[in-house]
Amino acid sequence: MDQKFITNSTEETFSKGRQFAQSLLAGDVVALSGELGSGKTLFTQGIAVGLGVEDIVNSPTFKLIGEYDSTPLLYHFDFYRLESAEEAVALGIDYYFMGEGICVVEWADLFPQLMPDDAITVSIAAIGENKREFFVERRQAETAGG
Ligand SMILES: Nc1ncnc2c1ncn2[C@@H]1O[C@H](COP(=O)(O)OP(=O)(O)O)[C@@H](O)[C@H]1O
Ligand SMILES: [Mg+2]
Fold first, then answer.
1. Which site in 4, 32, 58, 68 is 20 to 30 Å from 24, CA atoms measured?
2. Counting beta carbons within 10 angstroms of the beta carbon of residue 27, is it exposed (0 to 12), middle (13 to 18) or buried (19 or more)?
3. Whole-angstrom Cα distance, residue 37 to residue 7?
4. Could you tell me if the CB of 10 is within 6 A of ligand 1?
């Protein structure tokens, strides 16, 4: 999947999420950023389906953590309503991030200090009514030693 791509519809964003899921490994953390309505939830739902989830429940905007019964397990976080980093720590966010599930975080940029250094970042920008620009960045694993 390209580092940069544009989608022209809701369906396309969903299917890009499904495709993106194929590149994810157990333990990965995905940091999503982009304004309200950019497509973070849709992209995440695509990821869930890509990981084998059949029933997509609603966005966890009113919940801090959503769990999907996929393989690997998918944890869907939304920092939009998080009031402090401490609140997330109290919910055990570090354990989710260190675990073997896949974590996807909407509004990750609101609390960058919570995100692991090796998170895969996906930045989404609305560049038209139905056009969204995606930018995916994977940090290269650093060489051990030295
Ligand atoms: N290319 C596109 N990709 C994603 N969403 C789109 C696109 N074009 C229009 N939309 C609309 O934008 C909104 C995205 O909503 P959502 O995924 O909930 O955004 P977010 O979680 O970033 O707030 C939906 O109403 C969707 O129909
Ligand atoms: Mg959302």
1. 58
2. middle
3. 14
4. yes
Q: What is the pLDDT of residues 23-72, one digit of tens each?
A: 999 999 999 999 999 999 999 999 999 999 987 766 555 667 888 989 99
Domain count, the chain: 1
User: Looking at ligand 1, which residue's alpha carbon is closest to its atom 17?
Assistant: 39
Calculate how far, in angstroms, residue 37's C-alpha sits from the geometric centre of ligand 2.
7
Q: Is the CB of 132 under 6 A from ligand 1?
A: yes
Q: 73 lies in a domain?
A: yes
Of all residues in the chain, what percent carry a pLDDT higher than 90? Answer: 81
Domain contains 145: no
Q: Check pocket membership of 60 for ligand 1, CB cut-off 6 A.
A: no
Domain that holds residue 70: 4-137
CATH number of the domain bearing residue 78 = 3.40.50.300
Q: Quick one: which of 91, 95, 121 has its CA closest to 106?
A: 121
Q: Is the pTM of this model over 0.85?
A: yes
Q: Is residue 146 part of a domain?
A: no
